[in-house]
Amino acid sequence: MPVSTPTAAVRSAEVHTLRAASSMAIAALVDGPLRAATVVAATREMVAMSVHAVEPGLVCLTSRSAARLPCAMVLPGPVPAADTGAPATVGNGRVTLPGIVVGASRWWAVRLPRVAESRVALARSATCAAPVLGPEVLDAAAALAGALHSRALRLDEAVRGLLGLGPGLTPQGDDVLAGALVALRAVHRPAADRLAAEITRARPFERTTAVSAGLLAYAAHGRCVPELSAFLDALGAPGTDLLGARRQLLTIGHTSGAGLCAGVLGALAGPASLAAGAVPAPRRPVTGSVTVTTSRSQS
Questions:
Q1: pTM of the predicted model, to two decimals?
Q2: InterPro entries in the record, alphabetically (predicted)?
Q3: Mind listing the pLDDT tens digit of every residue in the chain (299 residues)?
Q4: In angstroms, rounded to a whole number, what is the distance separating the alpha carbons of residues 291 and 299?
Q5: Burial (CB count within 10 angstroms: exposed 0-12, middle 13-18, buried 19+), residue 184
Q6: Alpha-carbon distance 250 to 261, whole Å?
Q7: What is the domain partition of the chain in residue ranges?
């Protein structure tokens, strides 16, 4: 009996070759050894794949109009159709799906937040208007902020309360966690390691979507969408347009921008920073209709 290989798992009578502008955060995966992967989400603007036994292991084919994820291969044209659960491979310089091969036309760097003055960022976050959250997410976000600022409170319980909380491709509770992770990395706080460890212990791939769990793994290394980087930059630099940066952040996704913003403010300024709401900003759709799977559903 022939031995099954990742290459043998992805075959098609007709193969279309595409080129994409690719994130350097996934260069080691794309240019590394061939690994098996699975399509974990497919929308009009994104096909997300989870590479087996690697973390971070999320790789996304996206359109130009989608949010610029840190693990994106940005296509110049439409995102090809794919079925959730379909086999894929990543490595040897390409991503392969049934009937599709995608290579990197160029590489772009994920810009990490550049917080010039941590003390300034902490002070400005305390006066920045909080985003509007639903009551359940707001309570859970405040619990996380409290646990990050007081060892007397249970950080593990706060993390479990947020993981997978909310609907959609990236539940808003996960966005709160991602915002907090990136913010703590940006200001070089030891709490970043504590939070990352608690998220890992909570087994995110069993509690939320595979896409959201994959993005949390990138956030643990400070990697995020450019709007979040710009918001953190503005927090740490007096005289910058903080309101404008906040406004741009809130346009990400249906609820993602607000969740990311809340995670940042809570992590830097504590639960009091989330007490007051703000007028919702217009939101830019990221993905349209979506089919997603969690790692639990794949097992």
A1: 0.88
A2: AllH-like
A3: 445 555 554 444 588 999 999 999 999 999 999 999 999 999 999 999 999 999 999 999 999 999 999 999 999 999 999 999 999 999 999 999 999 999 999 999 999 998 989 999 999 999 999 999 999 999 999 999 999 999 999 999 999 999 999 999 999 999 999 999 999 999 999 999 999 999 999 999 999 999 999 999 999 999 999 999 999 999 999 999 999 999 999 999 999 999 999 999 999 999 999 986 433 444 444 443 343 444 433 33
A4: 17
A5: buried
A6: 7
A7: 16-109, 118-274
